[in-house]
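C-alpha cells as discussed.
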C-alpha cells in the first residue's frame, strides 16, 4: 500500500501482511522434545595426546569452529556421532576430507587424525547429534494437523546457536519435579522423555518456536471442542489475560496474568509483549515463569493472542510473550 499526504506528496510504501480468519485449539500441555541434527554439531575442541605422548590439535587451521556442522567425510554422508567415529577410525591415520557447514555456507577442509595410546584415531572435536528436553505445546490446528510449541527456538547448550535439525519427535512426558524460581535463579519443570508415547514429528526449529505434525492426537490429551479464533494484534489489549500450563501430570489449568506492554510493530524477535504473572496459585507453585512453561498459550477475551517465551531472570513474575500471528506464520512454512 502506498501512503500519500494530501493525495500529492508520496511518503512511503507500507507492506501489509493480512492473515485470514484462523481458529486453533490452545493446548498448554507439557511434552517431551527429541531433536536430531542435520549432520553432527561441533560443540567443542581439545588437544589430543598421541601415541608418542605429544599433544596435537589436528583441527587447527582447518577453519572448523564451534557451532559448525560436519555433514560428510570422504564424500560419505555423516548423520550420527557413531558414523563419524567409524569413518575417522577407518582412515588408519591418513588425511580425511571433511565437508562442513559454517554460517549456512558449505566448506571443505582436510584433517589428519591422531592415533592415541588406545589405538583410536581422534580429531580433537567434541560433537553431538541430538538434543532432548521438555516444553509446552502452544496450539493445534485441526484443519491441518499441525502444531506449534515453545514460542522460541531450541539452541545448543554449548554453542548457544539454533540447532539445525533433520528430524525430531514430540512425545508424552512424565513430570518429575517443579523447581520454584526466585530472583537471579530461574526455576524449571523437570521431566523425562524416556519410554513415553509418540505425539508427532517435529519438522522445523525456528527462533519463534518448533513446529510439526500431530500423528497421535489421543496422546496429546486436548479438548477438540475448545477451538478459538486467533486474535489480530489490534485486538490485544493491555490488561488481564490467562495462560494455560501443566504443572501436574495429566492436568492443565488456566492462571491469571497481566499484559503490561504490547510491541505491535515487532516482527524480528519473540518479545512481542511484556507480561506479569498475577495468579497467587501459580506464584505459590512456581514463583512466576519457569523453564518448561515456554509455549504456554495466552488467552484474552476468548481469543488466542500468543505464547510465553522468556522470563526476566531478576524478576521471575515477569517475562515476554510472542504474538500468536507470528507463530502461525511460522507454522505455515512447515512442509
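Sequence:
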Amino acid at each position: 500500500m502506498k501512503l500519500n499526504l494530501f493525495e500529492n506528496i508520496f511518503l512511503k510504501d507500507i507492506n501489509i501482511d493480512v492473515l485470514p480468519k484462523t481458529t486453533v485449539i490452545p493446548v498448554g500441555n507439557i511434552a517431551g522434545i527429541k531433536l536430531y541434527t542435520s549432520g553432527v554439531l561441533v560443540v567443542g575442541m581439545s588437544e589430543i595426546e598421541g601415541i608418542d605422548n605429544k599433544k596435537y590439535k589436528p583441527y587447527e587451521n582447518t577453519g572448523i569452529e564451534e557451532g559448525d556442522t560436519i555433514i560428510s567425510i570422504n564424500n560419505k554422508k555423516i548423520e550420527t556421532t557413531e558414523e563419524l567415529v567409524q569413518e575417522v577410525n577407518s582412515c588408519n591415520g591418513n588425511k580425511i576430507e571433511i565437508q562442513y557447514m559454517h554460517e549456512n555456507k558449505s566448506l571443505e577442509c582436510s584433517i589428519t587424525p591422531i592415533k592415541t595410546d588406545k589405538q583410536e584415531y581422534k580429531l580433537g572435536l567434541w560433537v553431538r547429534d541430538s538434543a532432548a528436553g521438555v516444553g509446552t505445546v502452544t496450539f493445534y490446528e485441526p484443519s491441518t494437523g499441525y502444531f506449534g510449541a515453545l514460542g522460541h527456538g531450541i539452541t545448543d547448550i554449548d554453542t548457544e546457536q539454533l540447532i539445525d535439525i533433520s528430524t525430531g519427535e514430540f512425545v508424552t512426558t512424565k513430570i518429575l519435579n517443579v523447581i520454584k524460581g526466585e530472583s537471579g535463579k530461574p526455576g524449571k519443570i523437570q521431566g523425562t522423555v524416556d519410554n513415553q508415547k509418540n505425539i508427532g514429528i517435529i519438522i522445523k526449529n525456528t527462533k519463534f518456536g518448533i513446529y510439526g505434525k500431530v500423528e497421535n492426537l489421543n496422546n496429546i490429551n486436548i479438548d477438540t471442542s475448545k477451538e478459538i479464533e486467533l486474535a489480530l494484534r489490534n485486538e490485544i489489549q493491555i490488561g488481564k489475560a490467562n495462560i494455560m500450563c501443566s504443572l501436574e501430570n495429566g492436568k492443565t489449568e488456566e492462571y491469571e496474568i497481566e499484559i503490561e506492554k504490547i510491541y505491535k510493530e515487532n516482527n524480528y524477535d519473540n518479545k512481542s509483549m511484556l507480561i506479569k504473572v498475577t495468579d497467587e496459585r501459580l506464584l505459590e507453585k512456581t514463583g512466576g515463569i519457569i523453564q518448561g512453561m515456554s509455549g504456554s498459550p495466552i488467552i484474552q477475551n476468548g481469543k488466542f493472542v500468543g505464547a510465553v517465551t522468556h522470563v526476566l531472570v531478576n524478576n521471575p513474575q515477569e517475562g515476554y510473550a510472542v504474538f500468536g500471528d507470528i507463530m502461525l506464520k511460522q507454522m505455515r512454512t512447515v512442509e
